[in-house]
């Protein structure tokens, strides 16, 4: 994670250039960016542990462990309801029926039951989400 922060902030370039780039000291450092296996700076995948490693491995396999990707498009009908992932047996869902609506219709979804929005008629269904 720190390497990503350095890359974004540009601090890694200043570290590589050494004190000379900042107006202090002798010339640039003699290091180069190499993988950790050959003695360089480790990547995010190489230094990840615990839950972060599980998430990165799941993303490499193509699964979506924390619903990071947008859901698949569906019509919201009884035959093709909006699927709402949940780790528990119930979840609160809000439906904004129109683009410029000023109110949100909330409903509880329970495992195994399909619910319908009272205003627009969109159907929602709770599906279990497996954590990595």
Automatic annotation (TrEMBL):
Cite the binding residues for Zn(2+): 95, 97, 117, 120
GO MF terms listed in the record are: metal ion binding
Give Gene Ontology CC terms. mitochondrial inner membrane; respiratory chain complex IV
Against Pfam families, the record matches this protein to: COX5B
Q: What is its main location?
A: mitochondrion
Keyword entries, A-Z: Acetylation, Membrane, Metal-binding, Mitochondrion, Mitochondrion inner membrane, Transit peptide, Zinc
Q: Where in the cell is it found?
A: Mitochondrion inner membrane
Source organism, top-level taxon: Eukaryota
A single GO BP term for this record reads: mitochondrial electron transport, cytochrome c to oxygen
PANTHER family in the record: CYTOCHROME C OXIDASE SUBUNIT 5B, ISOFORM A-RELATED, CYTOCHROME C OXIDASE SUBUNIT 5B, MITOCHONDRIAL
Q: What is this protein called?
A: Cytochrome c oxidase subunit 5B, mitochondrial
């Amino acid at each position: 994670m720190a390497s990503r922060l350095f890359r974004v902030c540009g601090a890694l370039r200043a570290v590589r250039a050494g004190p000379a780039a900042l107006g202090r000291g002798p010339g640039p450092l003699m290091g180069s960016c190499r993988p950790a296996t050959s003695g360089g700076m480790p990547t995010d995948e190489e230094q990840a542990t615990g839950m972060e490693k599980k998430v990165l491995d799941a993303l490499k396999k193509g699964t979506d462990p924390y619903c990071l990707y947008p859901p698949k498009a569906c019509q919201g009908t009884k035959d093709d309801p909006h699927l709402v992932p949940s780790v528990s047996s119930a979840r609160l869902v809000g439906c904004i029926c129109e683009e410029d609506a000023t109110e949100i219709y909330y409903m509880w979804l329970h495992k195994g039951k399909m619910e319908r929005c009272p205003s627009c008629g969109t159907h929602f269904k709770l599906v279990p989400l497996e954590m990595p």
